Amino acid sequence: MAQTVRRAIEARYPSCYIPSRIKERRAKARALRMEKQRKPDKPEDFVCYSDSDSEEETPAQQHTILSTSYNFVDYVRSREIQAPEPRSVDPSYATRHMLTHDMFRETPVNLGNMNKVFCSQWLSDRQVVFGTKCNKLMVYDVRSRSLDAIPTLRPRAPWPGAEHQTGIHALQINPSRTLLATGARNSCELAIYSLPTLDPVCVGEAHKDWILDMCWLDDEFLVTGSRDSKLALWRAPPAPPPQRAPHHHFVSPVAVRECRAGQKVRALTFNTKWGEIAALTLNGYIHVFSASTFRQSLSRKLPSCQDLVCLATQESGIYAIGCKSYTLLLDCRTLQSVKKITSRYNGCGIRSASFRGNMLTIGTGLGLLMFYDLRAGKYLESNIHSSKTVTLKASKGYVFPDEEADGFNQVKYVPAIYTHCYDDSGTRIFTAGGPLPAPLIGNYAGIWQ
């Protein structure tokens, strides 16, 4: 939660320096160790052990532990008076507390006749940007509840036809939050906008099929993955000075790499700790590229995975892969399976995944948002309702009339959560999606706060 290294003002030790805390700490560690040593009904495929089984801390470690307050009130007071004390707070604590105490409430967002939201990001504490299957790039204002359309960028070549306008599938913001990368009007091309004005910067031309995902390596370079089984490395040009008429450049990639042993790149993620780009392909492989050389280093066939959709990475380097009926955790060093997180609901396809600290958030095809605690090795449990896991159930959206879906005239349905994202504070979640069957047209979006 929060840690504050207290310093004595008048006495020799701070007020939190209570020797009995060491005994309580050892008792909790002993109980946790005994819990882990109990043999489960089904042994895990991958088990981690502590470096040492010793319960004794050195005198220096004991002094550090006793001088550290884990009280959130002490953290807030120290921050208010700007005390020269080392302090830190777990960024996922607020999210975890609100989830376990059933504090999140949904505010539905009316999207009119848009079709399926595929990707989203928070622009600021009051604006969310998202892309849809009907090729609309929209900005939603949380306070005024208004929607603004951002013009998509036109290609340089003659219009290839409606088959290349299949939606905006990916949307990413660079680390300094100065550039926004997404799909152009032609779904095979990259579009980059400057932030916060959303002025057009450039259109990238390289892929022959739809761009399904992208990731920034730093503030300047990003990688796109496409259904043409290729990865392209781009260097974003500097944002042009403000002009009366919007104008954008056309750029080519720095390098293009064929994803060997892969067919149709579905998802991408950048592993910052190990400097690697992980790519997921629809033929059941995960591929690793070096970010420094942009060369493919290895590929691995995933065990019995169907309907691979999403890929996320934790700060420590664990990969989470969303499949048809479970979420697979991989060790980034060996690409070996660490754990298979089975879904608690039958027919629950995993459509989106993200990490926030040691908590994995899973968006499903049944309109449910689930939360998995990596440290505890189980789904997050409620503190209000005993023996009940925490889930957020999306409100029902609408299906619009379609030629291939007769009889679905304004029929309510259970939406699939294709995308979800947290704001910087972790106290608000934007969830969006639409109907799971491809022929159906509809949408869903909501703000949880």
UniProtKB/TrEMBL annotation:
Residues 32-45 have a biased composition (Basic and acidic residues). Its main location: cytoplasm. SUPFAM superfamilies: WD40 repeat-like. Pathway: Protein modification; protein ubiquitination. Residues 29-62 are annotated as: Disordered. It is found in: Cytoplasm; Nucleus. InterPro entries: Beta-prop_DCAF12, DCAF12, WD40/YVTN_repeat-like_dom_sf, WD40_repeat_dom_sf, WD40_rpt. Residues 102-448 form the DDB1- and CUL4-associated factor 12 beta-propeller domain. GO terms for cellular component: Cul4-RING E3 ubiquitin ligase complex; cytoplasm; nucleus. Keywords: Cytoplasm, Nucleus, Repeat, Ubl conjugation pathway, WD repeat. Belongs to the WD repeat DCAF12 family. This is DDB1- and CUL4-associated factor 12 beta-propeller domain-containing protein. The lineage of its organism: Eukaryota, Metazoa, Ecdysozoa, Arthropoda, Hexapoda.
